[in-house]
Amino acid sequence: MSVIYQKVALIGxxxxxxxxxHAMRAGGLAGEIVGHAKSAExxxxxxxxxxCDRVYATAAEAVQGADLVVLAVPVGAxxxxxxxxxxxxxxxxxxxxxxxxxxxxxxxxxxxxPAGVEFIPGHPMAGTxxxxxxxxxxxxxxxxxxxxxxxxxxxxAAMVRLRALLEAMGAKVDTMDAAHHDQVLAVVxxxxxxxAYTMVGLAAHMEQVSNSEVIQYSASGFRDxxxxxxxxxxMWRDVFLTNKEAVLEILGRFTEELFVLQRAIRMGDGDHxxxxxxxxxxxxxxxxxxxxxxxxxxxxxxxxxxxx
Length: 308
Ligand code: NAP
Fold this sequence. Notes:
By secondary structure, the protein is an alpha/beta fold. It contains 13 helices and 9 strands.
């Protein structure tokens, strides 16, 4: 494959950015990759393991001369970074982000984007429960959706070029409205994470069940919750603070459904439970048929297990 961007600046060097660096290197997609992260330790690691050709102590220095800038920091850090880099962006460059929430990131970043620079918000729907510069791997985006939420004014040529990079990293690209993105993600990702956090927190607080029993007898349902609930606390705090409306809406509906199931259990309404679980099983089959997961019994562990 050939170089798509001459100089890519990665701002934030965690799971998402490091996976991009590995994928871009594997495909020869970037002339050079430079980066910035908050801590000197992460910057040193990024150099040591070859994620970046150069690292900078400030985001402002890192973006200079870049034709692609990727904001890969927690959602709550986007506004300050955007304000810092704005005067240093090269005319004609594209800025994209990878934040899990789109409307809040647009509100934080777009006001700082100078004329002549394209901001194309994005969200790779791929991840693991690991974080930091050593957690990335080149195949993270393979076969996974990367959603873009461009504006009506976004230059088509900038879209084509960004899409080419994402597809060359193995991703499937789709576009949608930012508000719709946040609603969809509240259903498929944000609320499920909150439920997993709650279930693991609940088990940890139950006095009749000791912590060692929770760990020792952890069966698949709880075990999968613990994997999700091990996700990065900063990232997820910011997701819930910034996608508040959509998550609260889905949580309200979730609570209603839960009460209906609770009542069915209390009343011994097996037909209701069976019919409900039959419908949810069909959704799982649909996800496998759409290629979003494998039918292997230990689903969700393939790429991570291979990497470790
Ligand atoms: P991560 O592994 O925790 O890495 C975050 C990176 O951002 C670290 O390099 C950190 O630097 C840096 N950082 C944090 N605050 C900063 C600041 N104020 N200035 C400069 N650098 C800063 O996170 P991630 O999983 O890659 O997530 C990054 C973004 O991707 C988030 O917006 C998240 O919503 C989104 N996302 C994540 C996933 C996922 O599953 N993880 C999936 C899709 C999208 P230090 O190491 O020096 O602290």
